[in-house]
Every structure is written in C-alpha cells, then in structure tokens.
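Office hours follow-up: a student asked to see two folded examples consecutively, so here they are.
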Amino acid sequence: MGEAKRRQALGIPPRKKISDINKSDRYISWLPLTKTRIKKYPYMGVATMALGAIIFLVSGGFNTIS
C-alpha cells in the first residue's frame, strides 16, 4: 500500500510539498532567490562585483566614458 492510500485510509491529510517556498522569504515574488539561500553564500556579492569590474575593464574601462 502506498503512503497516499495509507494516509487516506487513516484520515490524515496529504503531505505538503517540500518544494513550496514561502513567498514572504523572497526578495521579489517572481524571482526564485530567497533570503535563506542568499545567506548560505555571503561571498556572492563580492564575486559579482569583481566579475563586473573585470568585464568593465576588459571592454575598455574609463576610455569609453566621455
């Protein structure tokens, strides 16, 4: 007997899906990044800034600003 049938026979409600993310935990409702996930990677902001600086410098840097 499967778990769903056993729960139905016992009168227990179906299990809630684990993949349901609390909407209040998100910065933007349609963006799949949550506050708890970002807290796991504190270096992400520094890495993104470094990558942006590298791309800026490779593309010409301050020479393109007039």
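And the second, which I mentioned at the end of office hours:
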Amino acid sequence: MTTARPAWGVQYTLTLPSEGAARAAAAELSGMRHRLTAVRVHDHFRFVPSSFWYGRPSTDPELEGWWQVFSLAVYNGYTRMALEPFLRSERIRVAAVGRAHGGFQQGCGEGHAPTLEGVFTRAGLVHDRPGAEVALPDPLPEDPPRPPAGPPWNCGGEGEPAAMVQAAVAVAGRLYGSAEAAPDAVGWLLDEEFAFGEPYGSTAEFLGDLADAVAHQGTCADATVEAVPFLTELVCDDNVAPGSRLMLLGDLLRLAASGPAAAVAQADRSTALGRAWKESAAEYLTRRAIGRELPRLLSRWGDESDAVRFALAALTALCGIRDQRVLAGLAALPAPAGSSRADVVSLVAALLGDDREDLVTILGRVASWLPSVAEEAASPNVAPQTLGLAVLPGLVLEDVMSGIAAQRDLP
C-alpha cells in the first residue's frame, strides 16, 4: 500500500503601492488557482485593537500606506524535493505579478498545505477557492545537468583547532595588545575567560564563531570594518594551515560581496519605491578596507597554491581593483573548457576587465546550469555587474570547499 504524499503549500507575499494594485494582483494570483488570497494594508495589525502590534510604530516606515497580498497556493502529488524546479518557476512567476502591478514580492513561506490553510489569516480575504490546486506539468521540470567541476584542488588541511585558536590569539595580541584595545569583533579572543572555555572540536567550528563575531549573520557593521586588518593578518600568518587560510579568504569574499548581494535581493523593492539602491556605509567601508589590504595579500601571489590564487582573483574583482598579474594568472588556473570552473574563471576575468557584453554572456552560461543564478537573473531590475559580484563568492567557495572537504577525508 502506497502512502499518499501530503499536499504542499506555499504562502506568497506581495507588497503593492495601492489598494487597487493589490486587488488586481490578488485577482491574477487567484486566476493562477491559488486557494486563498487576502488583501490588507501594510502592517495591518497595527490598526487592530486586540493585536500586540496595535498602535506601535511601523516596522518598515518606507512602506507606510502600501498594501499587501497574501496568497496560498497548493501543490499536490509529489515530494517537496521533486517540486523544487517547478516551485522556483512559480516564485519567478509570482514576482513578475508583483512587478507588473508596481510592487514586489516580499517573501514566501512553505509547509504542509492543511497546516498553512488552517493558520492563514483571513482578514481581508478577497478570493476563496476551496480545494483549488495549482496545475502541475507532467512530467515535472528537472534541474539542468551541471558541467564537470574541474580537477581537484590541492587545498591542504585545516590544521588542528588548538593551533588555529593559538594563531588567532597571537595575531590579536600582536595587533592590539589587549582586549580593551581590540575591535569588538576580536576582543573576545584576548579576554581571560576565553582561555578557560571548552576546547573546539574542529577548526571549522572556531572559524565559524570568528566569522559570526566579525559579521553577525553576515551583516557588516562598524566592528566588521575594524576587523578586516585582523583577518588579513591571520590569512598571512605562517602558523595558519593552508585550508584555514582559504576559509578565511572565503570570509573576506562574502564580506566584500555583501553590498552587491543586498542590492540583488532588494532590486525589485528599490525599483518599486522609485529609488536607486545604496549600500550601507558599513558594507562600503568594509569593501574599501579589504581593497586596502589586497596588495599585501597579493604580494605572495607567486608562492600561493592555485586554489588560493583562484580566491584572491575573485577578491580582486569584488574590490574593483585592476591587477595585470591577477588577469594573467587566471589563464594558468586548472579550468578545462566545458567545466563549471571555466565559467567561473571567465566570470572573474569579465569582472576584472569590466567587459559588460562578455559578462552578460557568461552569466547566461552560469544560469544555464545553476538555477539559483537563473532565479536572481529573472528580474529585469538586477544589473548584470551587480549580479556577477553577488554570486561570485558562492561559486568560488563551492568549488574550493569541495577540495577542503576532500582533504578531511584523507587518512
């Protein structure tokens, strides 16, 4: 006896500039066979006396007076994993509805359809289609095949966690002398209580704590800017194992791309609000701080492994620095034609060379085998240059980290 697969539900949220635009978008979603669709003024619960939020300030003042559409779509007959390629196309389609009516998609939540239907807030309900389900194609679409990754990197090991901790503490002491003089993101390494804490089980665990301290949940702040010289000093420290150096370079890659990544995520919203995206001061200053440290990182280019050169080339592109040594070195990296690595190397070269036409072509190639890039590129409000910078760290780190993982498996 085969157990029936539970219906899967997705609740989409659109934000629109007026009630009329919200109702028009809701009607369109209902026409796509969404089961429940509600229209409410933005921050609706601020105006409900029984709500915890009643009378409180708006959580998003920019959207004061805007309206929202909440719509529940039900998909039946397949596991969640099998549905992913189709749901991705659905997210793209719903986002297009938001743009067409002058707004943007503000997110979505997923779960078992009966649960989502039971908790759906029906205030402002404008369309109720009992039992409606979105028609699924047969067969379901599948993710595109990925090209081969390229030859394995020789990344070296991560080293013992105790040695990594000792190196970090030594670098912090050398740079700052005391916890009081260190940036907030680094001071804990020099705090006396840290020395008596539980030892780390792995180097990756410690580096994860360090990355979160420097940029909590990946968000740049003033302390992030101040910590960039410390991270650079740690990358250059001979006591840090090669694999750990790569992981630290990965942190710098993500920090340098934080502004472009936010711009891509907010592109439709910025356009709907009629303003150009502007990265935060901390994001801008963090990237500038990394750019100032790049000459030191590149000074050992001739002695670095190919994996480190790959990461450094990407970091150079993210910081907008033109370095002929890096451009020439890209051609020597092991990136056979037809591999995903060849596409990423081409992306780095296009960003370094500021070749806009080539950049569009290369992003199209990457999107043909990486659906997440295709989804981000679907918005006409996302500039190719910004998209290339935003996706670059993930592409580089996915490739490089596979080499680090392989090293862990060695006896």
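Two things to take away from it. Strands lie at 8-16, 36-41, 67-75, 104-112, 125-128. The chain has a mean pLDDT of 93.
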